[in-house]
Amino acid sequence: MTFNIQHFIKTIILGLFLWFFIDLHTSGDILKYVNPKYEYISKIAVGIFILLFVIQLFRILQPKQHIHHICSSTCNHDHGNGHFSLARLVSYGIITFPIITGFSFEPATLNASIAGNKGSFLPPVQQNNDESPDLFENANTLAEHENIDIYSEDYLPIENNNYMSNKEYEEKVKSFEASETIHMSEDMFGTYYGAINDNLSTYIGKTIKISGFVYKEEGFNANQFVVSRFMITHCLADASILGFLTEIDEAFELAEDTWVEIEGVLDVTNYGGVEIPVIKTTEWQVIDEPSEPYVYPVLTLTS
C-alpha cells in the first residue's frame, strides 16, 4: 500500500468543512447566515460532505502499482504523490480560504453600522406634510444599497419559517387593533410596524412594548435613538431595518448596538418636516442580544 499525500490533503480539507458546518448547526450560528426555512439545505450539504469525506478516506492508502509505463521528459501524469506545483498550491489556497475565515471570525449579526451604511433611516423631507410617510414600504434594505430591486412587481418573497394559519393571523391583527397595549412580538413585528405607520393617528396614546438594538443618526437629539430590528425575507442581502424613534433621558449613555427593552407611550413628532411615530419611554432596561435577533415576514397558511 502507498500513502497518497494529495488525497490526504483533500481529506483534511473536507473534514474541516464538515467540522465547520456541524459546529454551525450545533451552536445555532447557522441562523445568523440563512433564514431558518432554508436550514435544511445546509443539512443536506453536511450529508454530502460526510459522504465525500468517507470516500476520500479510502483513497489515502492505495495498492502499489506493479505495471509501469515509460514517461517522456514532458510527462505530466500524477503518480499519486505528484509535486506541489504553483497552480495546485493556488487551488488549495482558494478552497481553504473560506474555511480559514469561517474559523477565524465569529459570525456577527447585522448592526447599527450596517444600518448607517444604507443612509438615513428616517424619511426625507416631503413637500406635502399632510401625507404621513409609509415607513414600512420605504424601509431601507441592503438590496437597495446594491441596486437589487427586490420590491418590484415580479419579486416573489421567499417563504420563511414564520408560519401561522389565516385564522390565527386575523385573530392577532384584531387583538392588536383592539388592545390598548401593543406588544411588538417577533412573529408579528413587521405587520404591526406597517399598521402603525399606515394609521398613526389610530395608535397615538397607546402603550407599546418593544425590544431591539440602539441605532443613532446624525441630527438626533441627545435623548433620541431608534430602537431597531432587522427583518429578513430570504437572507442577509434583503435585510430591511425597522424601528421607532425613541426618547429616553439617558439615551446619550447608550452605545449603538446595545440591546434594550422599552415600554412607553406612542406619540407623534416632526422630523425633517414629516410626522413620524415616537415612543415616549416610561420604562426601559438593557438586555442581552436574543438568540434570534432577526424578525421575519408572516407566511399565512390556508386551513
Q: Can you walk me through this structure?
A:
The chain has 303 residues and is α/β, with parallel strands linked by helices. The chain is built from 8 helices and 10 strands. The protein has helices at residues 5-27, 39-60, 86-104, 112-117, 142-145, 166-178, 189-198, 200-203; strands spanning 2-3, 61-62, 163-165, 181-183, 207-215, 224-231, 240-247, 259-271, 274-286, 299-301. Strands 5-6-7-9-8 form a 5-stranded mixed beta barrel. The chain has a two-stranded antiparallel ribbon with strand order 1-2. The chain has a two-stranded parallel sheet with strand order 3-10. β6 (224-231) and β7 form a beta hairpin. α1 (5-27) runs parallel beside α3 (86-104). The chain is elongated and about 85 Å long.
Multimeric status of the protein: single chain
SS content category:
alpha/beta
Strand portion: 15-25%
- For the secondary structure, the number of strands is 10
* Low-confidence blocks of residues: 123-139, 153-159
Instruction: Tell me the radius of gyration.
Output: 27 Å
Largest β-sheet summary: 5 strands, mixed, barrel
Helices and strands, in order, run as EHHEHHHEHEHHEEEEEE
The whole-number mean of residue pLDDT values reads 77
Q: What is the overall silhouette?
A: elongated
Helix content: 25-40%
Major sheet: arrangement of strands: 5-6-7-9-8
Kindly list the characteristics that best describe this protein.
single chain, 303 residues, alpha/beta, five-stranded mixed β-barrel, 10 strands, 33% helix, 21% strand
